[in-house]
Amino acid sequence: xxxxxxxxxxxxxxxxxxxxxxxxxxxxxxxEEFLRVLKQRNFPIGKLTLLASARSAGKTLKFGDDEITCExxxxxxxxxxxxxxxxxxxxxxxxxxPAAVDAGAVVVDNSSAFRMTQGVPLVVPEVNPGAIAExxxxxxxxxxxxxxxxPNCSTIIMLVAINPLHQAVPVKRMIVSTxxxxxxxxxxxxxxxxxxxxxALEGEVTTKDIFPFQYAFNLFSHNSPMQPNGYNQEELKMVxxxxxxxxxxxxxDKMAVSATCIRVPVMRAHAESINLTFDGTMTEDQARDxxxxxxxxxxxxxxxxxxxxxxxDAQHQDDCYVGRIRRDLSQPEGVGLDLFVCGxxxxxxxxxxxxQIAELLVK
Length: 363
Ligand SMILES: NC(=O)c1ccc[n+]([C@@H]2O[C@H](COP(=O)([O-])OP(=O)(O)OC[C@H]3O[C@@H](n4cnc5c(N)ncnc54)[C@H](OP(=O)(O)O)[C@@H]3O)[C@@H](O)[C@H]2O)c1
Fold this sequence. Notes:
The chain is of the alpha/beta class and 363 residues long. The chain has helices at 29-40, 90-102, 130-135, 153-168, 187-201, 233-245, 284-293, 311-314, 347-362; strands spanning 9-11, 20-24, 47-52, 60-63, 66-69, 71-72, 83-86, 106-109, 146-149, 171-180, 220-221, 256-263, 270-278, 297-299, 320-327, 336-343. Strands 1, 2, 3, 6, 7, 8 and 9 form a seven-stranded mixed β-sheet that branches. The chain has a seven-stranded mixed β-sheet with strand order 11-12-10-13-16-15-14. Helix 2 links the parallel strand 7 and strand 8. The two termini are 28 Å apart. NADP nicotinamide-adenine-dinucleotide phosphate (NAP) binds at residues 25-31, 52-53, 55-56, 73, 87-90, 92, 110-111, 153, 183-184, 186-188, 345-346, 349-350. One of its GO terms (biological process) is diaminopimelate biosynthetic process. It is an enzyme of class 1 (oxidoreductase). Belongs to the aspartate-semialdehyde dehydrogenase family.
């Protein structure tokens, strides 16, 4: 289809057996990344439908060389859809996720709406791919509709990094501090950081539409709702989702987790400082070897040149980058390690992880 001929959906007659895919929230930060990831990974698509709010109906988005016109999301949007990739916020997922399943679709949901719902798999493909098979959800000739939840972006990045170590020697306790990028709060937050940076440099009063604080040249506690125990919702997601993904919800000796989540004026890719206490011995070299050999992670750990992961290394990359692997001096030798991780949360923390789940469903 030539780029000059917009269509409300794109379909390929040579791929009629491939799934009809819908992206809900296609105009957002995650939605646009879905388009890039699906194309780059050559995900089999029989037909692609792009859905967003009434504001975006008629807008065209690029999918490779094609331009596809966005449609307004309604309850009737899912007729004939096999795979619905949701990224339009929790209330939309709660309202229309079940409607998509009733229409026969497999839903992979990026919001927090169903993550902790019993029976809904919460999946990081590198960590717990088996959760999908257990739920008996599938695409293709044995299509079985249902909802699969994509975990919180900071949780995905953290677990991809620590899982190779945890599989070798169980982690007893994990203390994590995040440095979270603007893109984690969506396209409007990215625009606000850009605008505020310009305004601050020109000595103007900064515009605060998305966050209550100045974001440019500043940092602040994560904007998710504060809970009575003093943690914000993002921090508690990292605790509870970790236990569900690791299959420890019912365990008396589940991993002890505490998180502090901070927004920093970085446009894209989250960073995390992670302190681990092992139930056994884990040396720095062992940890480096395990990370170097694991899928989804790469090492940047060059002490001589003070070269460690940065958000700019991670942006637009599939892998999460791990470095600053060092013994925790506050603990006996071999018991504790510190590490620093950077991962693109729009990509691995959202769109890529969801597409990897869909790839498992197709298999
Ligand atoms: N950003 C991340 O790094 C990240 C990571 C993990 C998970 N998530 C989750 O993914 C979801 C989307 O995040 P985002 O960052 O992409 O947000 P975003 O940039 O603000 O995009 C939101 C999308 O939802 C659509 N939308 C909003 N209201 C709608 C409505 N009433 N009906 C239909 N569509 C509607 C928007 O369409 P319009 O353009 O028409 O308004 C837009 O396409 C959220 O649940 C978020 O928590 C985000």
